[in-house]
Amino acid sequence: MENDDVKQSLRKFLFIPERYTKAAKNDNQIVAVVHRSWLSSLVQKGRPDIFKYHEKLTDYEVDLFLKLGEPFESAWQLVLITVLHLEPDENVYPLPRPRQANLVSWDALNLTYSQLLHYIADTNYKNSWKEAFKKYSCLPDTKSAQKVPLVSKRAVILEAIKRLFSCPVINLDTQEVFPAPKDRYNTHPNCLPAICAVFTSDHIFLLQNYIPHSLFDCVTFSPAVLNLARSRSLFLIYQILQLLRDSYDKGVALGGISLNDVLITPSLWVTVVPKLEENLIYPKEMLSVEISDQAVQCEKKPDASLSKLLDLWVRGQLSNFDYLIALNRLAGRRFGHPSHHFVLPWVTDFSSSHGGWRDLTKSKFRLNKGDRQLDLTFETASGLQNCDSSPLQIPHHVSDFLSEITYFVYLARRTPKSLLCKYVRPNWVPAEYPSSIQRMQEWTPDECIPEFYTNPNVFKSIHEDLPDLEIPSWATSPEHFIEKHRQALESVSVSEKLHHWIDLTFGYKLSGSAAIKSKNVCLYLVDNHTNISGSGAVQLFTQPHPHRTTPNPYMDKIAPKIAFPSSKRRLESTLPCILSPAVSTPDKIEESSESQSDQVGEESHPLEGPKTLPKIKYTVSAEDTVKAIHLPMDYGIVSSLQAVENLSNFSLEVLHEMPRDDNYGQRQLSSHYKKAIAESRVKEMQTLGCLIVEIYLSSKLRAADLVHYDFAARLERCLKVVEKEWRDLPCAVKKVTSVLLELDESGRKISSHSQDFYQPISPMGLPPPSAHQLLQPLLSSVIPFPSYFEPLYKLLAEIHSLESSSDETSELQVNILNSGLPSLLPKMDEDGLDLLVPHVVRLLKSESATNAAWRLFDPLAKALGPNRAAKELLDPISDLMDSGGATRAKLYHRSFLLKLMVRFGLRAFINNFIKSLVEAVGGYKDQQCKTPTLEAERRKSDALNVVENFNLCDNEAGILSPLDEDSSADSDKVITEQEIMPGKKEEGSDVENEPEVFVLENEGDENDPANSVTSPAVALDLMAQLEIDMDQEPEGVAQNADIEEPKAATPNLEPEEAATATPVQTEWRPPRRPNTATEFPVSEESAESLLWLAHRLGPVLTARHLSRNLLRMLSLCYLGESSLAPSKGQESSESCCQAIPGMKLVGDINSTRVLSCLAEIAAIYGEQLVVVQYFGHMTELIALCKRKLTLNMEAGLIGCLCLMCSIVPYLSDATLMEQILDILKNILHPAVRLVATSRAPFPSGITARRALAYKLLEALYLIAMRIGSDMTRLHLSVTLQRYFLAFDKAYDRIDAESGFLEVRRDNGELLKGSPLQISQARQTVVYFIWSNCNSSVFSLENRSHYNIFYSC
């Protein structure tokens, strides 16, 4: 069908508008986008609903999206629709009966070495026998001669759809839905699955899943995909062979598929779109005739010479009916002419259905009149003479074989009365016509007519007073009688003597002494009439007609079994039952292209054992001393030779030509149903050869446009290209190409036989090629499939067979791979792993990605090795861990992290997974990513990058910096040290760019000592310290390797340049807060794993990659106004930074595990880590805050004060006192200035300022608790003075004269002589700090917390 016609059909029957369709690769296919609800309604209701249009896109946009391949929403689905237009009045041959091969195990499909040798020898012997039988045997092929009933084209296509796709079938006319036959047929994994099939009276629509790319696209536009490894192209061929074998077992032909019909996925999995229309096998023109077209066929002239017809009939390759009809034509008889109608013999008296045979050595006239009457008639005519002594009558026995009167009597039931009264009897008397066929046969002296063998209508009367012609009692109907009568004509009893009847009717017994002796002298031939006539008897032969060769019971199309001596029998008995035809065996290998359909309507097997003919007694002796063939006594070889000699003499003397022995029986056999099936199988094998040429020599065929060629032209072009480019064809496929296309060693076509069939024995000594044969592992010399192809394909086929079968498909696929990989991976080389990896990567992006990574990563990465594992699996695993969600919790377990370190190496692990681990500790992985399929770019959803949530950073690495947010802010928002502390100017504050503070360290310097440690050694040391069971130790790792840990960490505190970005305009979304204390599956697991990792990485790597990133993660915990709000939930005892009860922030909950990890790391590696890294980080961060206070900076500032509260308990008194001045100078005093200044607007407003004031007060309290009252008065007085001065400045409580505030005790006593005076700690001050809070910091209930400052 043309593409426009296809679109009109879709519009008419399925209501799909043209804008929602686009042309596919083939003319009868269309790609359409439909709504899933419309598709579901079609399958459930049996009729299409009104088409649902896209709500957001216009028709033009939908059409453009289709052409460009743009994705649609998940509610829309792309389908491939194949449209077949069928003529309702055409009938074709049915499909062959399928084989029950789907219940056979994979192991049973492969032959052992001895079985293979036996198969080759036995099959070659049988094929040679069949070839000789076709060429020389005179035995009629009775099975082939049986008529195959024709069926409608629609029934054949629907049956093919049921076998191949096992999908629901919808009758659109009756709106009836036929469910998929799941019990009997299963869709092959390499066959494109079908959603449903819809049929009308003259159309069939097959709706299939759509795959955008075909093998044609791959070899044309992306040839490098197949050129990366030799195994890739071979695996494509292997998959096609598997589908060919399955389709043969189902009795369905794939047809001449092209590269466009072979669809391919990125993982190199093949799905084929079969050519369903090529299963329509039309009955070819035969010499035999059909009942309904009897008159037409009888009038048609034969297209073969009499010599050829004679030869075919003698050899049993032409039916008796066909040959007699041909002789009638050659004798000048005309079908339907009353005086010269076709004549056939009466062969039975109808006393029984299989008996009452007529004597064919005598004419019907002689049998009816008797010899005495004929002798009297002949002698009487001889004795009567005229006056001139000439005979008065011409002596004769028979006037004609069929008179006009007899013709009309035969057809009296179908002839008008006027003609009957004119030619039979003037008066109409129905009783004078024979009432039954038995009575007619007894009454008439003439021969029969073809209608009594073909047309049951002659028995039905058109006259009311003339009843139907009665049939014998053993016949149930006229049709049944016709069938039995025809079988009687073709029976052996008739065939053996039919040549005598031919001699009487058309042969030498029509004249001469033979005619007199046979009492068959025909008047028309001896009366010497002089008037010109257009009808009469014609003598075709002047010699005795050769008899039809009698079927020899020892000569059959199936080769007889050879009986071996006892020793050989014992050897043969050891073969398995696979060679026995009596045992239900799986499909193995086809015997030959012709024998693929020998059992029409019966189940057969490609590798059948020899069948023993009854009463065969000859054997082949295998003794060394005597080598002879013993034939049975009644074999009759002399009679067979005599029959050949008689046929040759008759042809030479009568027909003046010798019978030719070329292509015996080809015309008749090619017309047989099973022969047409065999031709389709050969075509499939030749198509495979063309596909191989088009794959490997695609660059030579691109200008040929083979896609639109018919098969013959495509095959011819491939043969020419192969012959010319034979050297460019890879050696791996030269053998199989030469076998499939029948080429010699130089690539030239072997043209010694017909192209429609293969030779019985190929030049390699093998039977004709088939899918079953080429898939045999022991025949790797034909096509070198690697040994791991079979288990790999078995595993992948099982995975793909589960596609769209259930909601848990991906989980089942992971389980299948997990059970199959341990035995498969040791067999595979690098090319095999290249085929397997894409399927595992696909599962790493599915709904069961976590389970796939947990179960499949380690064995596959071990087989790949560190370098290739990092290349193939690093990005999918990284994206998986970045996606987040509670289901990813076990990916952060230390056992899986250890596998990542071992398989990827320590450097790759640190560079790619530390960031995700730290983010998980901060709670950013407790929330599922918006794209679970992980198709977004890598690192797009990183919490620390905050590219998606904040849209702040535009730098190359996409890393969040606290400075990026306001780098382009107005000058009035930039705070300098001079503004905070008048009289002090910061140098270069107006020209220097702010460094990035919150940059996670992924890539270390090459000269860094941490990167000098080799990955295998670190991995082994980690494995040695981890108390978990591992299956196997990694190969190539020294058992005594150890990691050298430096004593101190030196974090990199050098500032880096930060890129500028626009300020944030939307509120940041913090990590999800738990509902209960135990709702942190990912953060809990990751926190434990991080501490485990910190124990084993050593201080240098820990400080550089763990604690440094935790410090940056701490800032993000307080990012955003919502994180700085007071927490209204139940207070947790896990908080590390809460010294004052009831004043807990939301960010405190988020930072609980981060602070805990930082504290644990400090406990592991000592105070030096706190002094050098933690205090250094706080100092640098606060120094940057003095330059510009951004949203990120305020969060980092609050996080630093929380960290101060968390780590103070881990410092010794000596260390704390050593660092107290630096803490005050670099951390606390600047923090007080920031909270007190009015020139530094906080991005989060009053919420951030009061949170900072609270955390600062809490830090002061904890330090005071550690150093005692004396040290507090000594070191913290100035800090507290500045802190509380900010509150009274806000409320104008400063004494104008002294400039000090009054400080009173709780009992009202005024304190004097102190450098700091605080007056009236009233609720107004509290509300300034903690508005909208439930408790007050300076309330009377909490006074005991602060008396320590100034106790007397």
TrEMBL record:
It comes from the Eukaryota. Keywords: Repeat, WD repeat. GO terms for molecular function: phosphatidylinositol 3-kinase regulator activity. Residues 298-569 form the BEACH domain. Residues 970-988 have a biased composition (Basic and acidic residues). Residues 584-612, 959-993, 1048-1081 are annotated as: Disordered. Gene3D superfamilies: BEACH domain. One of its GO terms (cellular component) is mitochondrion. This is BEACH domain-containing protein. GO terms for biological process: aggrephagy.
